[in-house]
Structure formats: C-alpha cells, structure tokens
C-alpha cells in the first residue's frame, strides 16, 4: 500500500522514459530507509561471504556450506527458545552450534580415516533433526518462516552492525590465513611438510564459514544463506583463472545480485531472499553459457587452433 | 664426517604392520644416498618418517640440528590440485615459505630468486601459465624449482625421475649433483640402477629391512638384489607382535 502511494505521488513530476528507469533502479533506495538498510546489509554480506564461497568451491567443499547452514539451525533455535526472536541470542546460538559441528567434523576427519564430507554429513543431519525438534516445541509457523528464510527488508540497526562486524572480521582473518589456505588447497602435503599452519588455518576457515552463514542467516535465512556464497564463486570460476581476480568477480557479482534482487522484489511480489538468489542464478547461467574460461559457448566454438 | 641422520632401530608402518623394520644406521652430512629396493620395500615410508609425516612405531629418527620442517621433501605422487587457479610463479614462490611465512613481503629480491629458480630448471617464460597447463615433465621441473627455493640442508626425493624423459631426468640429475656439490645431504629413492651406479656414491638397499647399506658398488650386487627381491610384500594379518628389541647394527 505504502509503496503504491509513494510512487503515484511522484509520478506526475517524473519525465517519461529515462527517468522511469531511474525511478525503478534508484528511487526505492532514496525513498525508503528499509531499502537502504537492506542494500547496506547485502553489500556487507557479499564482501564477507563471496570470498569464503570461492575458497569453499576451490576446496571442493561447496556442499559443505549447505550442510553447515543446516548445522546452525539448532543453535539458533535454542536461542529462539530461550529469548524469542532476539538477535544476539540467535546469533550466539547459531555460532556455537556451527562451530561445534565444524570443529567436530574437522577433528574427526583429521584423527580418523573418515573424510571430512562424511563426518560433516553425519553431524549436520543430527543437528538438523535437533533444530527442527526444538523449533517445533515453541515456534509458530511465522517464526519458523523467519528462521528458514530470513528477511533482508527487516534488518534493524543492531543486525546491520552485527553483519558489518562479521564481514570485517572475515576479511581481516582471511588476509591472515590467505597463504596457508591457498597452499593447502593446491598442495596439502607440501604445507604439512614445511609448516604446522595447515590445521589452524583450516579450522579458522571453517569458523569463517560459520560466521558468514550466521550473517546470511539474518538476511536470507538458513536455507538460502549459502546462496550468496556459492553462486558468486561459481560465476567467478567462469571468468578468470587467477584466484585474486576470482575473489573480485565473486564479490562484484554478489553485490550486483543483491542490488538487482532488492529492486526485483520491490517491483514484484517475490520475497527479497529468493529474488536475490534468483538474480544470482541468472548471472550464473549467463556465465555458464558465455564465460570466457570454460563456458559452454567457448567449448562448443573454441575458434581456430593456434600455431604454437 | 658428522652424521646428519640417525636411525636407531626404527620401525615404521601402518596399523602396527611394519613397512620398514628395525632399521639402524647413519647418513653422513653432505652424503648423496640412493635408496633402492622393490616396490613395497618401504622407501616412501622411510622418507615419510624422515620428514615427520609418519611417526615411527618404534625406535627413533635423529635429525641432528635440522628440524623436520626444514627438510625439503619431494613426495612420489605429489598430491597437487592441478585445477587450482595458481600461476607457476606463485606456486614456485611457496618454496620461500620457511623464510617468508604468513606475511613476509614479496619484493624484488624474492622475485629475482623465483626467476632464478625457474631458469635453473628451464622453465623461464612459464611464469604466468597456470599449473594445470604443464606437462608431467614440466610439472616435475616446477617442483624442483620449489625445492631449489627451499634452500634446505637435507633434501629427500621420492622417485624423482619417474615417468620423465631422458633429457628432463638429466637436467634434474644435474641439479641433484649441484646440491651434493654444495654440501647438502640428499636422499633419493630410485629404480634406475644404472643411474645410481653412475652418480650415487652410497646406496641403501631396502627390503623392509636393510639388505645392504654402503658404497654403491658393494651394495648393488646381483646376489643382494636377488635377496631384496625375495622380500614378501604382503602384510600378515595374523602376525604376532615383534619380539626383537635390538637387531645388529649396520652403518654406512
């Protein structure tokens, strides 16, 4: 209702054609504070999450992110059970649950023969069951929807600060563990033979995965939080062979998806979370088809071979 | 000469089954030692023990004043993700890890060192290629460039010339001899006995136990090679716990 009135009031003074487009692209954000907040939140999410997604993909752990997102649920649910839809309780609970699962899975993988994906699958299934059980003890359907899908349009100042803080921590910590992380991806045996940094770097990285999932959880919910991490990483893979450039492309495409998704959800009835992920999916499809590095069109029409 | 590596009754293995059994001996500082033996003789296991990836089931491996992490190690089948987006230059640059660590700057001298290492292995011009585009031989050259940068006192090479053409093998062997000339201790697991006889003064013939250990000419004799070949490869699931405490000493 409010949106309609706001726009119809502006319309008489607007010029035809070009200003109409500006209207759709910029006006929602100049007009409404909740849209500006959402945009800020999405940008912060992209800055932290997209680089993490790139590493998840390069370490063949794309689905691990998904598993971890489920693992967060019981912690957030316990926080919800104790203090309702309280930001800090739910964030804290999610962090604890996520860390517990990540560390347990990592330790089990390092100490036993079980591979990390297998041990993670075991732990996340347990915590998913636990989470659903806890939520159904107290929650209503609306609460459940909030937990599962989040609401980027309802970010308050506190939540926004938490997201920005987490993104900052992510970028700083990522800079610290960058070298061991990269070497462990390419040549784990070498890192093991020259340094003890491998295991701590890996655990720190898993911690970052959890932090960013909790981050995304507020805006996009448990189910879609991984979307802004993995889809941009997949997009980046189709455009460059250099890891630093990959980070940039991933962050950029995440920001663009976030912005365009917000505009899309403003103009249509699509909720913001799915709108953002759908835009990312469209960019992913385009990259898949036309990407310069291993895109389908490149594979089908590679051009004439070179002389040497 | 002083010893670089001590093996004191070392047993290394998996699941309590010994792959290297009661090995004792010393490797002198600056020696160039070939480790020969049939497949399954424990060559790789011994090397994994030396660099500290595998803990001995019994006995001790003494490294002198060198830390395990200061040993440059070339594994037999490097576990490298060749699809990872990293350039040859950056990959070789990781050889400077011990001196640069997490944050060490990568300035002009470091770039020059990497370039120098690349030219030493004949990979000049490959700096910006991603590692996935290299052939098997080029890959091995790249790994040797990283070994060069590691600048280690002890270098352990596990079958470094496998599946590599004669020219590349010759080039890389020259590097090994250069390391030897610089007084570094080099251990290499090899199957090419002619190459060993030509270049390696010392040989350890391994068949789970040390069959022979000493000057190459005395070690690689027909009867000893035959003895090594008779070694039983399979683990015995029902084997009793080993009772021997200290077998006779053998030294190089």
Task: Please describe what this structure looks like.
The complex is a heterodimer of chains A (308) and B (252). Chain A is an all-alpha fold and 308 residues long. In chain A, 81% of the residues lie in helices and 0% in strands. In chain A, helix 6 crosses helix 11 and helix 11 crosses helix 14. Chain B has nine helices and nine strands. In chain B, 40% of the residues are buried. In chain B, the strands form two sheets. A six-stranded mixed β-sheet of chain B has the order 5-6-7-3-8-9, with helices on both faces. In chain B, helix 4 packs across helix 5. The C terminus of chain B is likely disordered. The N and C termini of chain B lie close together (11 Å). Classes of the chains: A mainly alpha (308), B alpha/beta (252).
Protein traits:
A: 308 residues, mainly alpha, ABC transporter involved in vitamin B12 uptake, BtuC, globular, B: 252 residues, Rossmann fold, 2 domains, six-stranded mixed β-sheet, three-stranded antiparallel β-sheet, 9 helices, 24% strand, disordered C terminus
Main CATH class of chain A: Mainly Alpha
Strand content of chain B: 15-25%
Task: Give the total of beta strands of chain A.
Answer: 0
CATH architecture of the largest domain in chain B: 3-Layer(aba) Sandwich
Q: What is the ordering of alpha helices and beta strands of chain B?
A: EEEHEEHHHHEHEHEEHH
Please name the fourth-level CATH homologous superfamily of chain A.
ABC transporter involved in vitamin B12 uptake, BtuC
Q: H/E element string of chain A?
A: HHHHHHHHHHHHHHH
Helix content of chain A: over 70%
Whole-number mean pLDDT of chain A? 83
CATH superfamily of the largest domain in chain B: P-loop containing nucleotide triphosphate hydrolases
Q: What are the segments of chain B in which pLDDT stays under 50 over at least 5 consecutive residues?
A: 247-252
CATH topology of the largest domain in chain B: Rossmann fold
What is the terminal-to-terminal distance of chain A? 65 Å
Overall residue-averaged pLDDT value of chain B: 86
CATH architecture of chain A: Orthogonal Bundle
Radius of gyration of chain B: 19 Å
Give the strand tally of chain B.
9
Quaternary status: heterodimer
CATH topology of chain A: ABC transporter involved in vitamin B12 uptake, BtuC
Number of helices of chain A: 15
Large-scale geometry of chain B: globular
């Amino acid at each position: 209702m409010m949106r309609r009135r706001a726009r119809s009031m502006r319309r008489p003074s607007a010029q035809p054609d070009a200003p109409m487009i500006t209207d759709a692209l910029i006006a929602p954000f100049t007009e409404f504070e909740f849209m500006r907040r959402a945009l800020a939140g999405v940008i912060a999410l992209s800055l932290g999450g997209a680089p993490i997604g790139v590493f998840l993909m390069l370490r063949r752990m794309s689905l691990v992110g998904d598993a971890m997102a489920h693992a967060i649920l019981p912690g957030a649910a316990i926080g919800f059970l104790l203090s309702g839809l309280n930001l800090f309780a739910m964030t804290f609970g999610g962090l604890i649950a996520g860390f517990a699962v990540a560390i347990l899975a990592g330790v089990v993988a390092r100490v036993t023969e079980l591979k990390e994906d297998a041990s993670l699958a075991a732990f996340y299934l347990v915590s998913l069951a636990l989470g659903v059980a806890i939520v159904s003890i107290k929650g209503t359907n609306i609460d459940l929807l909030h937990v599962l899908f989040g609401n980027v349009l309802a970010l308050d100042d506190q939540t926004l600060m938490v997201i920005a803080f987490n993104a900052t921590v992510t970028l700083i910590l990522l800079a610290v563990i960058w070298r061991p992380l990269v070497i462990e991806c390419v040549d784990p045996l070498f890192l093991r033979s020259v340094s003890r940094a491998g295991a701590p770097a890996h655990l720190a990285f898993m911690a970052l995965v959890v932090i960013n999932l909790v981050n995304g959880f507020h805006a996009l919910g448990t189910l879609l939080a991984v979307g802004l991490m993995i889809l941009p990483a997949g997009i980046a893979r189709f455009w460059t062979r250099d890891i630093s450039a990959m980070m940039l492309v991933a962050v950029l495409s995440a920001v663009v998806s976030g912005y365009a998704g917000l505009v899309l959800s403003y103009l249509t009835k699509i909720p913001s979370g799915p709108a953002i992920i759908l835009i990312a999916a469209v960019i992913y499809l385009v990259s898949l088809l036309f990407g310069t590095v291993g895109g389908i069109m490149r594979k089908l029409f590679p051009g004439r071979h070179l002389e040497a | 000469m002083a010893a670089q590596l001590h093996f004191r009754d070392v047993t290394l293995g998996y699941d309590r089954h010994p792959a290297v059994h009661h090995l004792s001996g010393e490797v002198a500082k600056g020696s160039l030692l070939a480790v020969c033996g049939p497949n399954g003789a424990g060559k790789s296991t011994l090397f994994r023990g030396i660099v500290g990836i595998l803990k001995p089931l019994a006995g001790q491996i003494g490294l002198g004043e060198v830390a395990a992490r200061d040993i440059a190690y070339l594994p037999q089948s490097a576990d490298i993700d060749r699809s990872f987006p990293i350039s040859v230059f950056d990959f070789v640059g990781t050889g400077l890890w011990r001196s640069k660590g997490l944050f060490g700057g990568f300035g002009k001298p470091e770039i020059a060192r990497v370039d120098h290492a690349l030219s030493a292995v004949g990979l000049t011009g490959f700096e910006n290629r991603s590692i996935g585009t290299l052939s098997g031989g080029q890959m091995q050259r790249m790994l040797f460039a990283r070994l060069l940068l590691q600048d280690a006192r002890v270098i352990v090479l596990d079958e470094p010339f496998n599946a590599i053409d004669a020219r590349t093998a010759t080039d890389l062997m020259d590097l090994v001899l250069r390391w030897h000339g610089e007084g570094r201790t080099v251990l290499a697991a090899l199957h090419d006995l002619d190459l060993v006889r030509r270049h390696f003064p010392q040989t350890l013939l391994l068949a789970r136990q040390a069959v022979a250990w000493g000057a190459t000419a005395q070690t690689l004799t027909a009867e000893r090679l035959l003895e090594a070949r008779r070694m039983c490869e399979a683990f015995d699931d029902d084997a009793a716990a080993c009772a021997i405490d200290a077998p006779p000493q053998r030294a190089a």
